[in-house]
Amino acid sequence: MAISRTFMSFNLFIFFLVIATTNGQAPGPTNITAVLEKAGQYTMFIRLLKSTQAADQINTQLNSSSSQGLTVFAPTDNAFSSLKSGTLNSLSDQQKVQLVQFHVLPTLLTMPQFQTVSNPLRTQAGDGQNGKFPLNITSSGNQVNITTGVVSATVANSVYSDKQLAVYQVDQVLLPLAMFGSSSAAPAPAPEKGGSVTTGSASGSDGGGDSTDSSDAERIRYGIIATVAAIAASSLWI
Description:
This protein is 50% helix and 14% strand. By secondary structure, the chain is of the alpha+beta class. A six-stranded mixed β-sheet has the order 2-1-6-5-4-3. The radius of gyration is 37 Å and the shape is globular. The protein has a domain at 32-179: Roll (FAS1 domain). β5 (152-161) and β6 (165-170) form a beta hairpin. Residues 185-215 are annotated as: Disordered. It holds the Pfam family Fasciclin. Belongs to the fasciclin-like AGP family. It is found in: Cell membrane. It comes from Brassica campestris.
């Protein structure tokens, strides 16, 4: 009988211990940088999130009772490496904030929902309807593509998801039209510059021809002067 009571007491102890342990390990607030750090290969994006303080803003929104969830498109380090040299350094602090915000949707979207969204999607950088921050998504089967008017990216896979946050890996940094639309068209005038150089060279050749003509004119002028002088001298002798 004593053994039975001891056994029951031991079982009750284990039961309450499990409950206490479970409560102690309750998940804490969702943290975007912690999610990305655990996933790896997002060093540059994490650095931007922290330097712009967008990480704090995202975490505050995620853990707000009124939050509708967030969707984050996370470019890999390789995506940042493929950017033109100096791209990030050329941005102002405000533009860096907008660049990060352009990767965040103010609602939670699951993979199946990408097939039914209405374009352009609204990002935290601004409304895509005004043509400055358009973000369009097309979905075919399991493949999801994103276009910004500057770049086209592919959603590689799901990095993290819960009831408040969905993080998706993208293979390109999403460059908004408002900041990179003109720069993307900048290389176009290059042939015109090349044409100007060619035209200038042709003009230079013409300039060289004018120089030759002027030298001939000088020789003719001096010849005429010499002839006139000789005639004048002959007249004196006569």
